Amino acid sequence: MSSDDERHKPHPVDLIEKSSFEERESVVELRDSASDSSHRTRTGDVNTKLENPLAKLVHTQLLADAAEFARTHELDEYTETIQKGALLAQDPAAFESLPMLTEEDRRMLRREYTHKWDQPKTLYYLVIVCAIAAAVQGMDEAVINGANLFFPAQFGIESPPGKGATKEQWLIGLVNSSPSLCCGILGCWLTDPLNRRLGRRGTIFLAASVGFIVCIWQALTNSWQHLLIARFFLGLSLGPNSATIPVYSAECAPPLIRGALVMMFQTWTAFGIMFGYVMNFAFRGIPDQGGIRGLNWRLMLGSAGFPALILLVQVYFCPESPRWYMMKGRYTMAFKSLRRLRHTDLQAARDLYYIHVLLKAEKEASDRTSNKFLELFTVPRNRRATIASSILMFMQQFCGVNAIAYYSSNIFVQGGFSETAALLASFGFGAINFIFAGPAVWTIDTFGRRNLLLVSFPLMAVMLLMTGFAFWIPESSPAHVGIIALGIYLFSAAYSPGEGPVPFTYAAEAFPMYVRDIGMSLATAVTWFLSFVITLTVPALLGAWTPQGVFAWFAAWNIFGFVATLLFVPETKALSPEELDQVFSVPTHTHAAYQLKVTGHFFQKHVLRQRVGKMPPLYEHEGAIGQKRYGQAGAGAA
């Protein structure tokens, strides 16, 4: 094979999984973004073709480099395997023609494509542990929902009905929202130093340990101030956990199923929320015993510690992230970890060598970048990714889901439900949230991120309005409670495959690799801080505006979310690194103007049934017209 032919081979991950979390970035992108101070390079020159970092190497050079890599990192006994792995990393699709491979090697590599879910038991064990970690987060968020019906009266902060927004309602909101406040200002920002110091497993273990202790602590509190402090420390568990688990599963999973495994974090968080509602319902009628007041709500809050205990016991039976080992220079341990996570040594060697190449480039980029946080805003390409990700994180809270997740029991009681019926209805909300989160694993890469959002937002707005209007139905009518519950359930069904999973997935792929960690920390901090704002204010809003006003308020925000997504959130589905760079190099005003034209074109064609021509493409990877459209506009426009 000639060097010219090799030079134009596609990126390995483009052939395997374009939407993968880590490998989809190329070394060329990192070097250009970090080293070139010119404006066009910083914004991502749309005419620069991103290549496989190994593509320029002829086989003899690649084999020599792989042998040196094996010798340098005490992997001499695997030299031949690593050489074959390096050839595969250069072009995974070429395994049928590589003479160094045996027929057994080729059989296993074919099986990667034909049986992508046939993975080692260790990988599935890791998936289960990550699912438990996600469920821990969901339970921590859900159990306070049921406790809200009981602890305010015991601690003297129960709000009298019909008094509008009261001091007591603000205090209830403060107690509920304190974990989110801690996540937003502290917990999420601890993720990076904890991961660098302790690794993925160590961070998960520490977060689970803190979560277990705090859950018991919450159950033992004797005042609202004490409960507030305990719940604030819960954020030290939720923040690192929510940012680490998706990264850990992404770094350990094979490319073909990586996107699905990362998406499962949201699915199993929804399961944890549902299970938290189960605990609320199960403990609702527990009477006080042995002089313990409020045993029912104490058991609700304490129950979230049980899966955290399971998690901290099990996590060290999983292999550590190979990428983290390599960042620490522990290549032999990284190879051992990959051998546990892949069927063959060859597959492990291939992934080991490619991660090594990416880490070298990432280090070069980090060394040449003065302030990565500032570059999220000062570099236009990064700024557009930051704006788009922040819009989705903002809307994940202001769509209204956490107003229901934290206060559905109170809302149902205010709507005329008994306490038991309210807790049972809240379980229904959690169950639908979990059931409809599952299809997102398949639809997000089928319909695309934007399409899911553009369908989700209007549906959520309609369902919220329906729920709010139902409060005007006389309580004597069976339709009163029925339509309230139906509206909330339909809202959950619209949220779960759209605004539920998309924001974290979008943020994970929108940023270039050299600022991805800090970009994800910012995105996670934004959503947690806004969760604090929503959870703090909803009780007072329910008192001041009544449920009708609150549901209308969030319905209006969903209309805003639809417009903001249409104008400022580009599609990222199944795009290569080069294509992502092109997408976020389009000036914001150009993208917004084009989407307005597309909307008018759609209305003329499908509503007015007029015969209209095709819209020219916006991006270079969609056609040459797109290249001219934004290439002439200039990449520096904001």
UniProtKB/TrEMBL annotation:
Q: Which Pfam families match?
A: Sugar_tr
Asked if the record carries the keyword Transport, the reply is yes
- InterPro entries the UniProt entry points to: MFS_dom, MFS_sugar_transport-like, MFS_trans_sf, Myo-inositol_Transporter, Sugar/inositol_transpt
Give the superkingdom in one word: Eukaryota
Spell out where the chain crosses the membrane: 122-139, 170-190, 202-220, 226-248, 260-279, 299-318, 391-409, 421-444, 451-473, 479-497, 518-544, 550-569
Per the record, membrane topology reads: Multi-pass membrane protein
May I have one GO cellular component term?
Answer: membrane
Biased composition regions of type Basic and acidic residues, renumbered to the chain: 1-43
Where in the cell? Membrane
Residue ranges of domain Major facilitator superfamily (MFS) profile in the record: 126-573
Q: Which UniProt keywords apply?
A: Membrane, Transmembrane, Transmembrane helix, Transport
RNA-binding among keywords? no
The protein depicted here goes by the name Major facilitator superfamily (MFS) profile domain-containing protein
Q: In which organism is this protein found?
A: Lentinus brumalis
